[in-house]
Amino acid sequence: MKLSSLSIFISLAIHAALAAPEIKRASSDPILINPPGFPSLPSSRTTKFAPQGATTLNLNDIQGDILIGMTKIKELFFFFSIKDAATFKSKLGSDIHSLVTNTNQLLPGSSNVPVTAVNIAFSNTGLLALNVTDDLQDPDFVSGQFAEAINLGDAGTSNWVPEFAGTNIHGVFLLAASDVQDIDTQLANIQQILGDSITEIYRLSGAARPGNEQGHEHFGYLDGVSNPAVQGFDNGTRPQPTAIDSGSFILGTGKDKGRPDWTTGGSFLVFRQLQQKVPEFNKYVQDNALNVPGLSQEENTDLFGARLIGRWKSGAPIDLAPLRDDPALGADKQRNNNFNYDHPDVPGFDVKSNQTLCPFSAHVRKTRPRATLGAEDGPGDAHHIIRSGIPYGPEVTDAEASSNQSSTDPSLERGLAFVAYQSNIASGFKFIQQSWIDNARFPSPVAGTTGNTTGVDPIIGRVGGSATDAPRVITGTDPLDTNKAFTIDSEFVISRGGEYFFSPPISALSGRLST
Ligand code: N7H
User: Fold this and answer.
1) What span is annotated as the signal peptide, if there is one (predicted)?
2) Does ligand 1 lie within 6 Å of residue 33's CB atom?
3) pTM listed for this prediction
C-alpha cells in the first residue's frame, strides 16, 4: 500500500514539475511592497479604460485598500468612537473626504500617490451614531462581530482585546505609508481636524516583515499570492483562475443589486486581530517531520509544514511542487496561482478523492477548494474574499527560537491584522470560517466512501468554538498514507477579536454620511 502510494506520489510530482519557469519583477511603488510572486496591480491609466465587455469600476470612488491586497509597507488601524456626530459629519464632508485615498492613486503609474494613504470605514453602531439607518442588507454587519465570537469558533471573548468586546467602536482609519513617522503625522492631522468629535478606542500597528521576509506572514509563508482577480479591475492579468464578478466584493457593481444607491463602490471590511504562536508552530512542524524516502530530514520537515498550508514558504503551491519548495515557481506570477487541484491529464486522477499532491485539510484548500467541489467558480466555489491584511508585532527573538524554549514570550504578541473585503459577510469571511475552516468534514475526504474525516483547518480552525479546547485531528498530511491522523493539541492562531465595518465609496463621505 505504502509503495504504490509512493510511486503515484512521485509520478504526480514529476508530472507537476514540467512547465518552464519565467520570473518577472515589476517596479516597486513608494508605499506598497511588490515582492516577486505577488499579483501585478493594473496600471492607474489602463484601469480607467477597463477591457471591453468588463464591468467598469469607478476606481476614483472606491477606497484604495479594497482591491490592492496585502501590499502595504506600514499600516496603522486607528479605531475610534464618535462623540459629537454633528461636528464629525461636518468635518467628514469638508476635510476628511479630500484626504481619503482612492484606488487609482495607489496603482502603478499614478501621478498622485499620497505620502500616507488614508481609508475610513464604519461599524453598524458608527452609522447609527451618524443617524444613518439605511438597510445595507447585511445582517452580520448589523449584529457586529462581538455577537458572533462563538459562531466564529472563538473561545468566547476571553482572549479578545477588551476594546473589541462590545459595540463601542464606531469606525476605523486605515493609514498606510512607507514610514511610521508619515503615518503619525497624518494621524495627528486627522485628530486635529476632528478634535473632540472622536475619541481613540484602540490602535494596532502593522508592518511588512523585514528583508527577504517581506510579503511573508509570521510563520514564514508568502501570503497574498492568491487574491482573486476582479472583473473590471485586473481581469486578464493572470492566466488562471478566471476573474471573479466585482459584485462579490464591491456593492452595486456586477451581480450585486438592490442596495441603497449611495453604497455603490463600497465594501464590507472584516477586521480580525489574529495572534500567531510562531515558536509553537515551528516545534509542531519539526516534531512531525514526514518520512518520504529520498528527502532529507530538513526537507521532510519543510514538506510537513507546506502540507499544512498548501503552499511552500516561497509561495509555490504544493499542487504543482509536491516534493520540494520551488522558489522560481513561487516567484512566477504567471504560474503560482495557475492550479485548481485537478489533473485531468493524469490517468485515473480524481480531484474529489486524491490528496496525494495537496491534502484536503491544507489551509489553502480548506479556504478555497477550487475544483475540489466540481466546476471551479461554480456554486461550490462562490465564496470569495479579498485579503488585505498585514503582519503585526515583533520578529521572533533568539530566546524564543532557542530549541529548549519553543514557546512565545508571553510579553510579546505577533500575528496577522487580518482584513477581508466582500459584498456579503455571510457568504464571504463568515462562510469560509464557519462552513469550511471549522468544519471537520469539509471537504469530504473520499466522495462516497468512508475515508477518515478531513479535520478542521490546522492553522486557524477550531473544534466546536465556545469553551472547548479539544485537540484538532487532521488527515491527508502524510502523502504516503493520507488516512493517517495527526493530532494538534495546541492552537497556533488565537483570535483576539475584531469588528465588522463598511468601507463606503468616497462620494458618500461628502454625501449621505455627512448630511
Ligand atoms: Fe489564510 N498562513 O500563513 O497560514 N493564508 N491565513 N486565512 N487564506 C493563505 O494564497 C494564514 C485566514 C484564506 O485562494 C496563505 O495568498 C494565516 C482567515 C484564503 O488558494 C497563507 C492566518 C481566512 C486564502 C495563509 C490566516 C483565510 C488564504 C497562502 C491567520 C478566512 C487563499 C498565500 C493568522 C476566513 C486560498 C495565498 C486560495 C491563503 C496563512 C487567516 C483565508 C500562507 C497565518 C481568517 C481564502
Assistant:
1) 1-19
2) no
3) 0.93
